[in-house]
Amino acid sequence: MKITGARFVTATAVPGGEPSPGPPEIALAGRSNVGKSALLNSLLGRRGLARTSRTPGRTRQINFFLVNERLLLVDLPGYGFAVGPEAERLAWGPLVEGYLTTRPTLRGVAVLVDARRGLEAEEGELLEFLRSVGRPAAVVATKLDKLGKTEARAALAGLAAELPGVPVVGYSARTVEGRVALWRVLTAWL
Ligand code: GDP
What pLDDT score does 53 carry? Predict the structure, then answer.
């Protein structure tokens, strides 16, 4: 997809704080450090649009980015249950689950997985949750450049075998491999 405009619109840290439903939305989910900010920036061709995970305050919010005035990319907070003050950990559930369950304009969710680690418990649970609420999902294997060609192919095949019916796309924010393929999967939801 050719990006003619991309900008941060708003963020919410509390259920119900989302903007009024407007254009169709695609959400990105993944544990901290999976490469979500890098992927968002490279997908949009805007360096620095999504701040890195280490920026305080932004990581536990749902962030909304308007793309080409017709699509919202929605950056969900990383589900690192093990980190952060207890109150913030407890807030993740209602905030994200509420969004994923009730958002009328949400068309699909890309779940990011580190290509070297594959599916872990949290990703499996999230995908199961998405299936249970009827949301289309895709899996993006990030940091693909960190694997050799043969390993990368095996990692993608392994994910595809584990997840019948779920599109699996390999991605590298460094080389931008997978950008066209990922946009194809995401825009098919629109
Ligand atoms: P986030 O916490 O999911 O937003 O993760 P970031 O986008 O901040 O990335 C976490 C770390 O992984 C950073 O040091 C990035 O430079 C690195 N990283 C992200 N994507 C890639 C990638 O495609 N290839 C490589 N080699 N490193 C990446």
Answer: 46
Domain range summary for the chain, segments of one domain joined by +: 6-188
Three-class SS state of 169:
strand
Q: Residue for token digits 């807030």?
A: 91
Beta-bridge partners for 63: 11, 75
Contact in structure between 182 and 172 (CB atoms under 8 Å): no
The pTM of the full predicted model, rounded to 2 decimals, is 0.93
pLDDT tens-digit readout, 162-188? 999 999 999 999 999 999 999 999 999
**β-strand pairing of 106-114 with 168-170:** unpaired
Interatomic CA distance for residues 156 and 110, integer angstroms: 15
DSSP 133-158: TT--EEEEEE-GGGS-HHHHHHHHHH
CA of 91 to the centre of ligand 1 (A): 25
Identify the CATH number of the domain defined by range 6-188. 3.40.50.300
Q: Would the CB of 143 count as within 6 Å of ligand 1? A: yes
Closest CA relative to residue 128, chosen from 92, 162, 95, 156 = 162
Query: How many whole angstroms from 35 Cα to the centroid of ligand 1?
Result: 4
